[in-house]
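Help! Submission page says 'invalid entity' but I think these are all valid:
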Amino acid sequence: MEKQTSNPPQIVEEQDKQTLFFNLGVEHYAHRMSSFTNIMIGIFSAIGLGIFFVFRVFKLNVSLGLTLTTLFLALLLIAGAIFASITSKKLCDLVRDKSTSSPLMSVIAKRQSFIGSFNLIFSTLLFLLEVIMRIVLQTSGTGQSKIPSVIWAILLFIVLFANFGYFVVARGNSKAVANGCEYYLTRKVEPVGLFESLFISIGSTGRGLVIFLFNFVMIFVKAFVNIFLGLYKLLVKGSLGIWSFLKKYHHTFWKGSFRTKISYVFMGSGHSFMQRSYKTVMYLLMQIGYLVFMFLPGGGIYWLSKFENLGDTPYRMVDVCGIPNTPLIDCAPDDIIPQTVFMDNSMLITLYSVATILLTIAFFTIYWISIKGVAKADETYTKAKSIYKTEVLELSTNPEAKLPKFKNPVPTLKTELKELLNSRFHLSTLSIPGLTITVFTVLPLIFMILLAFTNYNQTYGPPNSLFTWVGLKTFSQLFTSVGGSSFSKAFVDILQWTFIWAFFATFTNYIFGLLLAMMINRKGIKLKKLWRTVFVITIAVPQFVTLLIMNQLLYKYGPINETLLQLGWIDNYIDFLTNPLNAKISVILVNVWVGVPYTMLITSGILMNIPSDLYESARIDGAGPFAQFTKITLPYMLFVTGPYLITQFIGNINNFNVIFFLTGGDPSAQLPGVQYGKTDILVTWLYDLTVGGAQQEYAIGSALGIFIFLISAFITLALYSKTSAATQEGDFA
Amino acid sequence: MNNREIRGESMTQSPKLVNAARGFKNQRTMGIAVNILIYTILIILSIIWLFPIVWLILNSLRIESPGRVAYFIPRQFGFDNFITLFNDPRIPYLKWFLNTLIVAIFTSVISTIIVLLTSYTFSRLRFKGRKGIMKLLMILGMFPGFMSMIAIYFILKGIGLLPSGAEQVPVSNYLISLILVNSSGAAMGYLVSKGYFDTISNSIDEAAEIDGANKAQIFWHIILPLSKPIVIYTALTSFMGPWGDYIFVATITRQRTDAWTIARGLYNMLNGQGMIATYFTTFAAGAVLISIPITLLFVWMQKYYVSGVTGGAVKG
């Protein structure tokens, strides 16, 4: 709220303030109106284009309904663009005719009209293309888009870009107008009637909305750009690293003595020539262990060789004698029974191959570390040896002198162990978590990510059959309706509900928790500790217990319904959990019950830290309790607990427990070909697809898991950078 | 607003102040009215919040029928359900409780050690790749946990902890698996305690280092005694985890009822085939019984919990 006054737009600095404000002030409804309409058009066309864009890129255009929708959107776009360019043109004329002394205003107006016409041209083009494509489609009857989606993407990108520019200009325009207004009001001219003020308020709301949207969108744009920049940097750094590693690898070999050279073949063997044989033993054991693992039958090489196809024979029928402990040759023909012997198991092949690859990476890392260690020790050792030799040579002329003892500069086992507790303490602390995370997190993750590129499901699954690589097919099954897959329908439905759920779950909890904390912490309320404990008890009872109880309470023929019925408040049983909409509302309300005490607990402490002079000065200025809440408490809390809110939002996207224990995803959506419930969120659906139910759609589940990860990571990165930047900016208010 | 004040319009403030003084008495009666309103709201809210728990307790004491009923107040009170809990062979409640306790204690100890050491490492030690590892751990933590569940199940089979065929393995194997699974990823939760360690002044470390302490000693003798709240917070949260964990237990133990934990067992009493009609009140008794120690523990440690959560929340 401070931003507007503390950060005025540039025009004010460049111009004579008074004239500019005056000119703008006189015209301010016109400006407000035009900028408002412009902004609204901008928003509509951006939304329209966004949807259009998604439709096109994912080719969701097979049915007539969708065609009509896209046509409608295109028409809307064109209407919007025409309107925008007309108003911009008007504004331009207005500025020119009245010879407003602000060159900047006319620049804005010009830009606006330029972008408006740009918009118009491209929207028309888009529309024409759409129509042509429809005609082509009608005649060819393939039902598939003939025009490659790349062209669409580029075109739409340009239009989106134009709209984006439109936003920027309209925003600048309204800022200028806002400044004009401020002046206008201070002059105490009475220009505003009822209608006008209504318009102004609508306009300023629109402006606020746009600024908010703009900032919000920009956060994501920035995050997106940052991710790509990061990837690019990583690539550059990685390739440079590989290059310098190769150089080093080569260089170390030729620079070192025989001790280093021999260590290239037999790991750590150089150490035994420097009286540090324990290292040689350690490294050699590792090397032998690795080689044995790789080359043993059924070892690493075996699994890697199968990795390309993920196996070829799932099982074989083998004749076995029916009588126990009898070889087949001695068996009577009647007793011979064919028996299944399982051969390749695609899942185990994938898992063990990934494990082998991870082990190989680890081994070669250790290999390189050992070489570096030997080379370093070798260098100091050689130097010390040569100094010692010259000393001995000098002393050898004197027969009475005592020969000095050679001091080995290479660290001993004892010093190395000591270092592990001091300067290399991080190696000791991180090795065990590193190992467990690799085995129980990284390995499973890579495995599951790989599964998303296979066709692993109920039909193609071990042990009775094999699955194999299918590339991106699983993703297209999940995200597009190609091939009549009903997964995409379920996916879109669940995705929508996931976000609605996460939004409501986070904000209802936050607001109600905050209000509760404020009520309990209010001056003059007694028994604070008792109230707090009452709510804390509900946190302490294990969550699954309370959720299961809630499920029983809300059961259709459960106590709540029966009691309400007996009291005569309702005539029929309420379908708390069996009607889709009711179930959704119930889930959110129960989540309030579950989550509000947490927020209360957390915000209580922070509430007490709000400087009380903020409230006092607000009271003197005549701010009521509501104004105090919206202008002081809420902004302060949002500022301090921003990161917490983000983690909560992500946590709610992944909030398995509440949904699973309360509704289990029910009521079912009854969609043929795929099972999911109306209250299922992405993670509970993932659970049902894989381990939870009989569907065993592992490939789809993995693709879904990757998607969940991507949105969580993206939102976190985008919003965290924003909040941390806010924190660095310094203190609040 | 600012402009108006500068232009000498602060004059308008003085009548406002006078008004405020005049309205002081009014304000006070207003305050009392608001307080009464707040008390009413708080009482209503308390009833709403305590109601399900009270209902649970009532159900655990209801003995006229074991299934669900549509009324709130039991017709007959008694402790029979608690007795059933320990006598019915279909629900080895004591076994489940002990399983959970063992898993919780081990998980808590191992995770706490790992988390504290990892956060100390990231907070105090400087080494190559520190930032990279921190980021990597944070990103790894964002994958939905049970996405890796199937793979973990097969890894545990591969290690030999879980049966790969029809043979039986002892219950302890399942418990070890659960402990491994629960505490293996502990290092990914380093953020909160790292934030706490960051607030401890570095000069204490330096002084100790001059006195000849190594990094391990600094951690053990200096940082750890100064971080009691965060140690308790970490131990508490990791101890509470296994009591509510359902999915991993369900995946790992499958149909081995004697290896189940409380959450799995209680869930089965409601959602198992035909269980709810005979075991609903027993479920309530079981739920009450485990809620008591956990609630006491939580209420007792509340202070640390809050400091831990808010510490992490505010610092990010």
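Support: the input was valid. A stray whitespace character was the problem, and the output above is from the cleaned input. Chain B touches chain A through 97 residues (CB under 8 Å).
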